[in-house]
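Lecture 7 notes: from sequence to structure.
We start with the chain below.
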Amino acid sequence: MITKASHEFWRDITPIANPFKPDAKPEVYIPDAASDDPRLYVPFTDTVSSRPLWISPSANKWCDILTATSAGLVNRHYHPHEVFAYTISGKWGYLEHDWTATRGDFVYESPGEGHTLVAFEHEEPMRVFFIVSGPLIWLDENGETTGYFDVHSYIEMCRNHYEKVGLGAAAVDKLFR
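Predicted structure tokens for the same chain:
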């Protein structure tokens, strides 16, 4: 239940009695989404980890907080679908672009973009909220395809990590919508 209003102008408005349609799933509410608890962050590469927040297996999409506590790297990859990013803290960018993102910066990645994500040394860890649509297509140094990483790869990676750190693989399934 939401905190009771004291003097806000809307304090006497009653909530909708039945807010969910019969086939709707409940919302996902995650307090302290950018938590410092390292168990919540799944190693994505040797230097970058991901905290899953929302996963749609049927749409091949997920939302996460990508983090690096020091210099980090996500190997070259290509996105056939759009990606959104909002920087919570730290400093990051793509080797292929002329900008560097810091706290408060927003990035829209167009479908068809390939890049190499890097995290810089910074007084704060890099934490970026991403909305990822579709797979990442791994690329070699010449931009040629070497593999892929999709929502099903992400789910398996998250389940394995959560089981290993004692949170239980089923914790990931609670994020499915």
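Points to note: The CA atoms of residues 160 and 169 lie 6 Å apart. The chain has two helices and twelve strands.
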